[in-house]
Amino acid sequence: MNIFRLFGDLTHLISIFILMHKMKSSRSCSGISFKSQALYTVVYVTRYLDLIYGKQASLYNTLMKIFFISSSIYILYLMKYKFKPTHDPSIDTFKVEYLLLGSFVMSIVFTHKYTFAEVLWSFSIWLESVAILPQLFMLQRTGEGESLTVHYIFALGIYRALYIPNWIYRWLAEDFVDGIAIFAGIIQTVLYSDFFYIYYTKVMKGKKFELPQ
Q1: CB-CB contact of 80 with 74 (8 Å)
Q2: How many other CB atoms sit within 10 Å of the CB of residue 31?
Q3: What gap in Å lies between CA 196 and CA 103, rounded to an integer?
Q4: Mind listing the pLDDT tens digit for each residue in 172-193?
Q5: In the 3-class helix/strand/coil scheme, how is 77-112 assigned residue by residue?
Q6: How far apart are CA 27 and CA 16, in angstroms?
Q7: Which of 120, 159, 165, 179 could bond 46 through an S-S bridge, CB–CB 3.0 to 4.6 Å?
Q8: What is the DSSP secondary structure assignment for residue 30, as one 8-state letter?
Q9: Which own/partner contact pairs does 46-51 have at CB distance under 8 Å and 24+ positions apart?
Q10: Tell me: the pLDDT tens digits for 66-92?
């Protein structure tokens, strides 16, 4: 495994632990988009169906897949039941139907093979590239974010950004190129660009995360 993928996976794990710590320590899910979390659950379930029928490449891959699915479902449980009174649906209003439909269309048009598993895999890649949008939309509506929530989004963005050098490494070292994953990853990284800039100019300089008025 190359170091870029390893660090990408580690920052992904860190982002999830930050999110769970935020909710458990504050006993609140305020500032977290339930819709984004639900989309990520759909991403993991559709991408990792090979846990049921496919041969696994390694124990590492298997454990990571199980963790991502189970942790995403657990986060939904916390938000839907344990800390439901702290979630404000009036600011979590992004129309995810458009993201689901758009990702489905892209998975039909752009897929490696027209098999059930491959179309679902492509769907998960396209959906992951835009799944953060409801969360970013919430930030835009409130104009600010809690410290741990902002750190969670930052770690999640770094996870995707690290996959860009991972793809370059695989192209140079393995002569492997996955156009779908690369293009979708670039879209996702671009969506984070404004957030990264504000994080750098505010949070990394000890200021509160606030969007420009």
Answers
A1: no
A2: 24
A3: 24
A4: 888 888 889 888 988 988 899 9
A5: HHHHHHCHHHCCHHHCCCCHHHHHHHHHHHHHHCCC
A6: 16
A7: 120
A8: T
A9: 46/120, 46/121, 46/123, 46/124, 46/127, 47/120, 47/121, 47/124, 47/125, 49/117, 49/120, 50/117
A10: 999 999 999 999 999 999 999 999 999
Token readout for 23 is 């909710």
What is the identity of the amino acid at 193? S
Nearest 5°: phi and psi at 144? -160, 170
Using pLDDT thresholds of 50, 70 and 90, give the confidence band for residue 96.
Answer: very high
Least Cα distance to 125 among 197, 40, 192 occurs for 40
Helix, strand, or coil (residue 143)? coil
**Comparing C-alpha atoms, which of 51, 52, 75, 49 is closest to residue 63?**
51
Find out whether 23 and 83 touch, Cβ atoms under 8 Å. Answer: yes
Determine the Cα–Cα distance for residues 39 and 99; give it in Å rounded to an integer.
9
